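Subgroup meeting minutes
Present: P.N., E.W., G.H.
Scribe: E.W.

1. P.N. recapped why we're keeping a running log of single-chain structure predictions: easier to compare across weeks, and new members can see raw inputs and outputs side by side.
2. G.H. added today's entry (237 aa).
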Amino acid sequence: MKILALDAATEACSVALAEGGHLIFRHEELGRGHAERILGMVDELLGEAGWTLGALDGIASSIGPGAFTGVRITVAAAQGLAFGADLPVVGVSTLEALAFDVLADGCDPGTAAPGTRHALSCLDARMGEVYWALHARAADGGLLTTCAPAVGAPASVVVPAGILHLGVGRGFSAHPELQLLPGLCVTPSASRALPHARAVAALGAWRFARGAGVDPADLAPLYVRDNVALTTAQRGA
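Output recorded in log:
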């Protein structure tokens, strides 16, 4: 199955093409210009692979949470490409992509037992808050959500007792106190991680194989939080 995957929901902008075990990608951390760069990356990878959009079987798109503009850019790009080539789409959350990557990589030797099956994904949501969710690796290689995506102060993040979780995402570097939560293994590289289209592609293929593809019009952003800035009263407080 030939999959195109897109993500521009955070500071990172990435695109991946995957077919079976073969993967090529572009991944850059940008201050701005995601809208212009993401389509350029698509053209570059299609040219490198020798594929056309019409040769694809589906498009996997990150859907958030993340920067509101970045989430909209990703979803709109996926919808536009899918409509043009008459392709189905699947959505993958940024927190799922982070968890999938860290669970595939495991933890640094000596820090915790390799093969840990649970992850706490955490992204900086600004305004003193974080986006977070809990996931577990599925027996068939996919991913299960054990605590739905939420947004709140770092103190609201909870790790279930007795279950080792790998921590991943830039929320841990933005709020280092989260790394001290009991039952958590956070490596330096994992604390700086951002979502990557390679994980979006892998999870997208897993979902397509289970019949989860939808019409592009049904692809919806996952914002989690409705407000994008503090009010004057909140800033004053």
